[in-house]
Amino acid sequence: MQVYAYELTVGQKGTVTLTNLPFNVGEQLEVIVISRPNRHSKEKKYPFWGKPITYINPTEPVAEEDWEVLQ
C-alpha cells in the first residue's frame, strides 16, 4: 500500500477536488480526511525573520577573556 498526502483547502460548498492522482481508472481507494490546525499562530516562530540587522563595531577586536571557547 502506498500513501499520498495532499494539503488542500475546502472550497465552495464544502468540496475538495483531487486531480492527477497516480492511480488507474477503476482502482478502489480509501480516503481519510484530517482537519489541520491553523498554522498561523499568534506567536511567530522566527520573530526577527526579515528584519534589518545592525552590527555595532563589527571589526572591533574581542578581548581574550570574552572568548567562550577559551574558558
Write the layout of secondary structure elements.
Layout (H helix, E strand, L loop, with lengths): L71
Jot down its keywords.
71 residues, little secondary structure, single chain, 0% helix, elongated
Your description of this structure?
It is a single chain. The chain is low in regular secondary structure and 71 residues long. 0% of the residues lie in helices and 0% in strands. The mean pLDDT is 85.
Number of DSSP strand runs: 0
Q: Give the distance, in angstroms, between the N- and C-terminal Cα atoms.
A: 55 Å
Mean of residue pLDDT?
Answer: 85
- Which spans have pLDDT < 50 for at least 5 consecutive residues? none
DSSP strand content:
under 5%
Class inferred from helices and paired strands: little secondary structure
Largest beta sheet, briefly? none
Oligomer: single chain
Q: What is the overall shape? A: elongated
Number of helices: 0
Helix content: under 10%
Calculate Rg over CA atoms: 26 Å
Give a short synopsis of this structure.
The chain is 0% helix and 0% strand. It is largely without helices or strands and 71 residues long.
